[in-house]
Design a protein that fits this description.
By secondary structure, this protein is α/β, with parallel strands linked by helices. Helices cover about 25% and strands about 25% of the residues.
Length: about 140
């Protein structure tokens, strides 16, 4: 049975991380409920105190095809390697040096947004096509694949 999937990410700054991932994935930050011009306006109307306005944020695929990413503030910081991570398909159909060049170009675009380049893994056929390991602004690992 097919189901919709939402990916939830624990973080310290939901608005900042949502903006980062919207840029990386070509998504958009989810807008406020109908009848409100901003989330601040909506949350204030709902009685949410200002210090809790950044407790959550979400990004959505403007085409409606990809999963929603939901970011929720948690008190604890990241301590160990993620058991689940996102693979950003930055070089589909490419192999060898062309693939790695495309991945490097994608990495170069993400660093100014707050990503950190963590490592490059060279192609090792037949099973490993090569990838670049990155972290988002809060240290969550993801791969350019």
């Amino acid at each position: 049975m097919a189901r919709d999937v939402q990916i939830t990410i624990d973080c310290a700054d939901p608005a900042k991380l949502a903006a980062f991932w919207a840029e990386v994935l070509g998504y958009r930050v989810q807008g406020p409920p109908e009848g409100f011009d901003s989330w601040e306006q909506a949350l204030t109307a709902m009685g949410v105190p200002p210090e809790r306005h950044n407790d959550a944020s979400a990004v959505v695929d403007p085409e409606g095809a990809g999963p929603r990413l939901f970011f929720q503030r948690v008190p604890e910081s990241k301590r160990v390697k993620n058991r689940v991570h996102l693979d950003v398909r930055a070089a589909p159909g490419l192999t060898g040096e062309a693939r790695m060049a495309a991945l490097e170009a994608a990495a170069d675009l993400l660093v100014p947004l707050g990503a950190t380049r963590f490592g490059r893994f060279e192609p090792a056929p037949p099973l490993e096509a090569g990838h670049v390991l990155m972290t988002d602004p809060e240290g969550n690992e993801f791969c350019l694949d």
